[in-house]
Amino acid sequence: MKYKLGDFVRFVDEKLEGFITRIIDEQMIGVTIEDDFEIPVPAAKVTLVHGYKAPGTAIADTVEKSAIPPAEFKTKGIYLGILPDVKANSVVHFHLINASSFQLLATFTTEKQGFKGEYAGIILPNSSVKVYSAQLADLQLWPKVVINILYFTAQNIASPLPLTFTEKFKAKDFSGTKKNLPIIDQQGWQIRLDEPELVIDAAKLKASFFQTAEEKITLTKPNREVDLHIEKLRDDHQFLNGTEILNIQLAHFNKSLDAAIVHQLPDMIFIHGAGNGTLRHELQKTLSKHPKVQTFMDAQKEKFGFGATRVMFK
Question: 0.70 cut: is pTM over it?
Fold first, then answer.
């Protein structure tokens, strides 16, 4: 198959164009058109539109740059960045990011009922290369990923041992907040492949042994309005079932409630939405028994409708 996820194609027999968001088999692909509707179409019935290039793609040049002073030579900074396609959000692209001063000889292989080499090449210092694409909705079907990296520099600096990273991704790997990826400078999920060396501060470690439990536990002062909608709490909410969503919302509610009491806030508003009323019922059941809660009521209806509860503390 000559096409890849994220390619921009035009239909041969119709005035339609869009991005490939699914590889069904060797003959069929899924193309998402302008209205976000995915159409299954034979690969022979579309043609590639040149000129579109996935973000963060860099073409590696095998010529090493001028010598870097040893004091400025960065020996760490290898990442796997996963970011949504700017035109087809259902597709994500895997990028190997080299923020170090080494040249990297890298391979990216997938394993699912056999091995398949997806990429092999050189990644220059301070550059990135797209190595793989996948359909985010099919995350549970993704193959295992194997990355191998060799370091090289012509300078008088010792190279680290070869690096191997193996991972079978799960929904929880995408539960964290997206970060601004180095080099690419776009929001995505970031995995550090070369963990920085652990530096232990002996003085701080010793001091921690003499702290009381109360000193070790700190709660950040919360906002007066806490939004419990799951899309505000987790990036991977589309992969969670109803019970998991409710447990996450209640855990965030209890943590915010404890923080409000510790910081002696006079009141707080929990935005839970109307929905089927389950979350609202669980919140109010907890509030009705809490010794530090004076009363609770529906928050300002003009602003929240019936989707928020205001809590007054003693």
Answer: no
